[in-house]
Amino acid sequence: MATYIARRLLELIPVLFGVSVVVFALLRMVPGDPALFIAGAEATPDVLAAVRRQMGLDQAIPVQYGLWLAGALRGDFGKSFVNGLPILDLVLQKVPATVELATAGLLFAIVLGFPLGIIAAKRRETVWDYLISGSAAMALGVPVYLLGVLFIAVFSLMLGWFPPAGRVRFEEGVDLAFRSLFMPAFCLGLAHAPILIRFTRNSILDVLHEDYVRTAIAKGLPERLVLARHVLRNAMIPVVTILGIVFGRLIGGVVITEAVFAWPGMGTMIIVAIGNRDYGLVQTSLLLIVVVFVFINLFIDVLYGWLDPRIRLGGGP
Amino acid sequence: MKRQARFEDRVGKGLSRRGFVRGLLMGGATLAASARSGQAAAPAQSTAGGPQKGGRLVFINGSDVTNFDPSALSVGNHAFLHQIYDSLVRIDSGGSGQVSPWLAESWKWSADGKSLTFNLRGGARFHTGREITSEDVKFSLERYKKEEVAANLRPRLLPIIDVQTPTPRTAVLALDRRYPGIFDVLDQFFILNKDVIGDIRTKAAGSGLYTLAEWRPGEMFRMKRFADHWSKDAGFLDEITVRIVGDPEAQLAMLESGQADLVYFMQGRYAERLRGRADFKVFQAGLGAATHYVMVNCSREPFTNTKVRQAISHAIDRARILRTVYPGEGELGCLPWTPTHWAHDRELAARCRFDLDKAKQLLVEAGYPNGFKTTVNTAVPGYSPGSKEVAQILQQDFQKIGIDLEIKVYEAAEARKRIFSADHNMLIHNYSAAGADPSFNFPGRSTSTGKDSFMQWYNSEFDKYVAEAFSELDREKRKKSYAEVARIFLDDAPNNVTVYRYVLSGARKRVNDYRGDQSGYPDLTYTWVAP
């Protein structure tokens, strides 16, 4: 297992290098000049040239990349073109808000997705199944943006249960923090729960047809025990795999949710940074997301092995 | 006293456009009286019984602070400019051009009009505690003029060639020409503290009514009242929290739920949702803060032909643009400055008429009886609000005279790049501060001639009148010169002003005496909140 993890970590190096090259190249290919943002609407060509020089944009693109990479390897990701703050500090300041929202959103997705998927499978082809599966299909089609606006209108403006937008940190008050987190996280969870419902349901139905389940039932084991010991554990293997994919989708959802609920996280920051062509900030943020994504998938692979001892990571016949 | 009230379109009173303009003029007269007396304008009287000290205001801005350097006039920076920094003078934002003392108690022109002496107020201090001297004025000007600082005001400050400092409280501005419009520039020229200039991007270096207490990039910044500020009859709030919320629905929801007190720069359709509701009000500030236009590129065919440009001018239905794209957000446009401006000329402004027959006739005379095909550049709403919708109106009308107009919509950074390189046949965009002295805008690339002009327009007669009006001290003579400037602008038709917009700010009822400067930038000098 340790060898496997070490190998996966080593694999991260070419992945990150590749991502950095692609992101760097893509950002430079996108039309737009960051110096124009800094120089303002009335800047003359002379002023623009001076600003470009100051930002290092007058150098050849490979030189710009080399300088950025050399800095990044030393842990210096440069400074934001826009506000001049160290990029790493800016990114790390936003990480807690995004992690908080994404984790809570994932928790909601799991809490809603797994039990409803199990109920739909257990009561397959009943009203419950049709209701849950039908609602999941409908929810999958509702954009997070619309869901967010509806939530704000109903739970905040009409009922006054939650603040409509913004984030309160936990150190500023646990109750207020939970109230500010609940709606965006629930909205995010609700948007992603349908995927888990459908996968859990289908996976359980597949396992229910396996011989060992039939044997367990024939042995006279109570239904609850069959479900818990034999069905769920095996059905969870593909579901756990899908969690990695759900997490990736959730990161995309976080960007929109952050915008709707004015949640000051990485998503909002990346959107603004792309608009401003704040190259370094976008590059560093995306690299961090890739690292997190790779680690989450690594964790899921490890979990996969724990759930199914037959799987031997890094080995096999 | 009425000065702030005129910015306020109180809910339910149904202030008409004409009534509003009248209010602006009356406000200007009141301000003129206060300036003559050499005193800073007094705080406004409020419907709730007069200004009260204390309280906290939560202010929503759609964009994050770029940095705390006031030379960068990006939208994100607007919220702190007049709060954290002091300027030498303040100017009436209603178009009267009336100047009020601020850091400078008084000023005097030299006989030849090429030197302006400011007497600085005693006891004015930076937030660090150090007294402000004329050396700080000199330092600030020199910094603003550096190319690498990229100050937005730089082109407008270049006529100031030097600042002499005979005494710590006397700053003498030496000019390369007479410059009566200088006060409009000085209103947004903020005095910087050289001792802490190295940290200006993150920590500010001002002397204003409020100090920077906290900044969380992309999230919020907080300002606290500066107890040692020289003005004791301004700066009523204990604290101002500026929260960064980009989504207009979220902004409105925060206002409606009481999480915020004021939303800066609200689109008309959102402001409309607040009008008529007892708990809210809508402030209108800075007429012409966004001055929308339809521009042609005079270096590209067929716009090299003056008659084609005039045909375009007659084919623009300004009233429909105002009515459908910017309802309740502004006034009909025509001249490069607003209808409330001292340079306004009613007869000239009447020439901007929508007349498709005339447009068709001009096209025939220009040799385009069957029209032609061209493109118009627009941008996403966040960068150029309403530009695409205006283009759609033009597309419909142009079709009737044979012009096949293709609409291009660009994302902000790309749009900005194309504008700066004048890479367009036609362009729909806007410039700011049409309420300011014309000399403020004529170095602007949207309204000026030459190789840097976005219009790629050359006209020596226009340049002659611009230069003449720039240096003329007599207001009446200036007015005549600017009438010529406007006449040539309309005759040659390189750029067609369509609408002057206000900055609309939605607020809770408890917010009083909020105002904007001539660019619509927030000025919370006399703002107070009812408990």
Explain what this protein looks like in three dimensions:
The complex is a heterodimer of chains A (317) and B (531). In chain A, helix 7 packs across helix 10. Chain A has 12 helices and no strands. Chain B has 18 helices and 22 strands. In chain B, the strands form 5 sheets. In chain B, strands 1, 2, 9, 10, 11, 12, 13, 14, 15, 16, 17 and 18 form a 12-stranded mixed beta sheet that branches. Chain B has a 4-stranded antiparallel beta sheet with strand order 5-6-8-7, covered by helices on one side. The longest helix of chain B is centred in the first third of the chain and has 20 residues. The two termini of chain B are 21 Å apart. Chains A and B meet through helix 2, helix 3, helix 5, helix 7 and helix 11 of A and helix 8 and helix 15 of B.
Radius of gyration of chain B: 23 Å
Oligomer: heterodimer
Strand percentage of chain B lies at 15-25%
Report, as a whole number of angstroms, the end-to-end distance of chain B: 21 Å
Helix content of chain B: 25-40%
Low-confidence stretches of chain B: 1-47
Q: Structural class, judged by helices and strands of chain A?
A: mainly alpha
User: Given the C-alpha coordinates, what overall shape of chain A results?
Assistant: globular
- Which regions of chain A are unreliable across 5 or more consecutive residues at pLDDT < 50? 313-317
Beginning-to-end CA distance, first to last residue of chain A: 16 Å
Main sheet makeup of chain A: none
Order of helices and strands of chain A: HHHHHHHHHHHH
| Largest sheet features of chain B | 12 strands, mixed
Mean pLDDT of chain B: 87
Helix content of chain A: over 70%
What's the overall average pLDDT of chain A, rounded? 84
Q: Largest chain interface and its two residue counts?
A: A-B, 51 and 48 residues
Care to count the β-strands of chain B?
22
Computed CA radius of gyration of chain A, to the nearest angstrom: 24 Å
Instruction: Write down the overall geometry of chain B.
Output: globular
Tell me the total number of β-strands of chain A: 0
